[in-house]
Design goal:
Rossmann fold; 2 domains
């Protein structure tokens, strides 16, 4: 294999995180295989689903097409037995495994058991481990005795969108987007506190967004009781509730740009692409202290985890953000120059780790 060409099978390749690991000018010795497209053409936010590269037999059939196998997301689509077979197949064909530990706890799983079993397999079998924050790297070291390279999350938005001037805001809008109520979300735990806090702040509004599929009886995410509870907040002073389909990317960026603050109602989690998008736009984030969000990007933290919520910490975070907003102090925002330099460094770091793994 020529050193100038490193063929990487990324799982997935189409996710924005993976796409933005490449050099912005394309001048790097890494070629990432395109995601195989499932027969039903199904996609989820972040890529084709399920990731066919993880299916039994794919490596045996395609091992001559790549030099490194890099797992990011999507392995929750296969069984632990499938992962054992995949790892055995990689070893049989002498293909190194690289694994980026994005989630120490899967935000879609109420029970962590299966994800923990799969983490045990991947972290033990990987030649190289990567993660996004020092805290996550420390957790990996404590649990598995493995060193993980710490490389930051790349930008989420396009360079053109990052360069665009921020929208002018007349109100201090505190946003809580509960999406489709995935397993780690508990908006009802925090909304009373937010509504009370916002009502006492000049110019403040609480905006709650939720996907309409939670009201669809035929949908996997059907949750009518929570839906009714969310709608009831719309009767409160200075609270508005919006029910709508999934935003397109452009709609999501406009939504985030319209907020002064985005509050993440997570009981558990590790890292966040949502946080990165807010950093691209200059939208302040108030995040729970259950993960490594405070290490990932600048944000206010409050105490929320699976066993505890401290309302005073959320009230303090919102009040602090409002004080800065009232004083005309902008939230930290990435410039394209910063994001571009970060992306160049990420592309070089990944190429070097791939090269070491192949060697």
């Amino acid at each position: 294999m020529e050193e100038s060409v490193l063929r990487v099978a990324s799982v997935p390749a189409s996710h924005v995180y993976v796409r933005h690991l490449s050099h912005p000018n394309g001048i790097e010795p890494v070629v990432r295989l395109a995601d195989p497209i499932p027969a039903d053409n199904r996609k989820v936010p972040g890529g084709w689903w399920p990731p066919l590269m993880l299916e039994p037999g794919w490596i045996a059939e395609h091992h001559d097409e790549f030099d490194v196998f890099h797992v990011h997301f999507g392995f929750d689509a296969v069984t632990t037995k499938d992962l054992v077979e995949l790892i055995d197949e990689l070893r049989r064909h002498r293909k190194p495994l690289v694994y980026t530990v994005h989630d120490l706890r899967n935000p879609h799983h109420p029970d962590p058991g299966v994800h923990e079993d799969q983490l045990d397999l991947l972290t033990s079998a990987a030649h190289t481990l990567i993660t996004l924050t020092p805290g996550a790297a420390h957790a990996v070291q404590q649990r598995w005795g493995r060193e993980a390279q710490v490389l930051p999350h790349p930008h989420v938005l396009s360079s053109e969108r990052i360069k665009r001037a921020r929208a002018r805001q007349q109100d201090f809008v505190v946003g809580v987007h509960v999406k489709s109520l995935r397993a780690n979300m508990d908006p009802l735990a925090i909304l009373d506190t937010l509504a009370e806090t916002v009502s006492a702040l000049p110019g403040a509004v609480l905006q709650i967004d939720v996907h309409d599929e939670i009201f669809d009886p035929d949908n996997h995410w059907f949750a009518p009781d929570v839906g009714r509870a969310l709608l009831a907040y719309g009767h409160r002073d200075r609270v508005r509730v919006r029910v709508h389909p999934y935003f397109t990317d452009a709609q999501l960026w406009d939504y985030l740009d319209s907020l002064a603050v985005s509050v993440l109602p997570y009981r558990f989690g590790s890292h966040s692409g949502w946080l990165e998008a807010c950093h691209d736009l200059g939208t302040e984030v108030i995040a729970p202290n259950c993960g490594f969000y405070g290490e990932q990007r600048p944000c206010e933290l409050f105490e929320l985890n699976e066993s505890r919520f401290e309302p005073e910490t959320l009230q303090r975070a919102v009040t602090t953000a409002h004080r800065r907003w009232s004083a005309g102090i902008s939230a930290p925002r990435a410039s394209w120059a910063q994001r571009r330099n970060e992306r160049v460094a990420l592309s070089r770091a990944h190429a070097e780790l791939y090269r070491e793994a192949v060697a």
